[in-house]
Amino acid sequence: MSSRALSEILRLELTRNYLQPGDVGAAVRLWKNYVHRPERQLWLDYECGDVDWYCCGDPIEARSLLDTVMQAVSPRSARELRAVVDRSDGVWNLARRTATWAKDKAQAEVEL
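RE: above sequence
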């Protein structure tokens, strides 16, 4: 990301009471690490929940924060941040499609 976008995000973190310096970077890392987990772990998180989220942060809330930040910054900075987030979103959508396919396949086998 450009220094202009990074400085705008830092200014946002310093002026909003719900953000602290480094929160956006932490949200990007948390979301990126979450979507790159094996599909089996993602499915277990979906089914059972993940107790680690209490200490390490909820990746779904992190993604929501990134949406909020993209709306609060200038369009140019939002495009740059969206490009970074879209890479992880692409992995997430692929994993969700595969998990849905596996669920549908397992359900079809049960019905037989």
